[in-house]
Amino acid sequence: MLGPLLDDLLRLYFQNIHAYYPVIDEFDFEQSFSGFSDDGNLRQSRALVLTSMLLCASMYLNTNKSYGYGQWTQKKLQIAVFAATKDLYNAASETGNQTALTQACMLLSYWSPCYQEQAHINSAWLARAFVHAEAAGLREMTSETLTDRSRLIWCCCLVRDRIISYSSRRALNPMSSCTNGVRVSREDFGLEICMPRYSDPDSRNGLVDAFLLLCRLSEILADINEFEQKQRDGERKVGRKEVLRVSQFDIRLREWKRGFQIWKAGPKNSTIQDSRGSYYLRCVVSE
């Protein structure tokens, strides 16, 4: 149905979306998704994740062009893929692989169609991602193999919730609290750091570092959001304790920004083409 457009969408996904939320293993992607399986639930779960990836990537298509064998416009493609994704999710939500369901819902929270469907706004998809992540036990798991994304998937859910909550001034998901102590490192990215499929190793290393910086920033934003929520929930008072707390936020943000500027000044010149999302991750995250 998509023809050569499929390859273009995958490239756009890994060059733009993957930088923000690396829930898919770039190194192992082709082998994992192209291998035959007799398990119908597994095939269905793979299809759900793939359509979610394509939907996110479609945001970076030129709105004035037509694509694929069917001459899809961007909007028509998005409507068709979103309909297929919803059908796949509804079919897999009970019996599908919970990790795959988490990946799909996490990605769907990145792209919110707003086609008069309140049940499918980004925060609703993210809430479902947490439910499936809990069912999969991702919070308790560690990345024991080079292709295990458990910790990264869980961390992506946390970062996504903290960013949405801070920007929309809503309460955090209880599982996004910084007290959970979950942190990821370069080791959690496995082989994709040195053998990425859709970028060069230098660029991928730089984007991994940028994602780790984004994770640290999200922890500060989560603490600020919780503090502001208490102020809005009837505990509004400004005393010495509150002033000191705000001062701590200022210090933490300044320290984070200093670390970001040190990293940015290093040899991180990307060679990736057509990667607007990656560019924004590097340059806007410090604002």
Automatic annotation (TrEMBL):
Keywords: Nucleus. It comes from the Eukaryota. One of its GO terms (molecular function) is DNA binding. InterPro entries: Fungal_Detox/Toxin_TFs (IPR052761), XnlR_reg_dom (IPR007219). It holds the Pfam family Fungal_trans. Residues 10-170 form the Xylanolytic transcriptional activator regulatory domain. GO terms for biological process: DNA-templated transcription. Coiled coil: none annotated. This is Xylanolytic transcriptional activator regulatory domain-containing protein.
